[in-house]
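Input record (one chain):
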Amino acid sequence: MIEEKDHSKKQTAEMDQSKQQTAEKDQSRQEELNEDSLESMLEEQSRSQVRSDYRRSLGNEYSRRYME
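The corresponding structure, as predicted from the sequence alone:
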């Protein structure tokens, strides 16, 4: 009977430790995803800005050449 209690305490402790490790892994994965999504969002924003600047410069060049 005492051995069963000790065994169940060990199992409970192992399960708690396993849950804690799983939670830590999940948290680190979430942080990586957040960093990746932020990085991809910033890349997309910079691409959009480059396209916008390019189009604006083309329009300015057109008006400078042909509207004067």
